[in-house]
Amino acid sequence: MTSIAIRLSRLHFPVTSLGPGHRIGIWVQGCSIRCPGCISMDTWNAGRGDTTVESVLNAMAGWLGEADGFTISGGEPFDQPDALLAFLHALRTRHSGDILVYSGYPLETLPLQRFAGLIDVIISDPFDAAAPQTLKLRGSDNQRLTALTPLGRDRFTALATERDNDRPQLDVVFDDLAGDAFLAGVPRRGDLLRLQRLLQNAGHLAGTTQDPRQP
Ligand code: SF4
Fold it and tell me: Taking Cα atoms as reference points, which of 184, 5, 185 lies closest to residue 87?
């Protein structure tokens, strides 16, 4: 089952800005939803990042002893439902931490019955750049945080609250091999473009992965 194909954008540990504790962040590659203003345009293309569930599990193995939970984002995890199912089954058998999955699909359209017991919390619905942004863990307030298990309720109830936009929480991650940096977490609206301008004004070559379209 773990030899099943999956498209992966990146892995990182520890991530502290996408759920409680020190988490393994898994960003899948490929998103067919394409919300205007999405900050992760680099994850849209489904034509790259090919690997297997087994390879992803092997790459994460050294982190499992220290991890409190997992955050699966993207990209759109439910665009790869078979791979997601195999991956979640494997996580559940290897670790007792909580599992948070992001999806841009409306909650009512997700095949949650098929994933019963495998996801503790889901943050659903497409990013809407015209909606306010006042809630923790979410890019826009139309996105719903739903606990699906007692563990999810236990770990995320305290996070289903208003965010402090004066102190956004982000992890800055450097990729030594590619020479890139990326931000894990949910930045404030416009922060990536502000950061890009700051770096460019300081003479750096800087681009962002934010979709320039506005609704
Ligand atoms: S916000 Fe999420 S669902 Fe929307 S386009 Fe970006 S990756 Fe896809």
Answer: 5
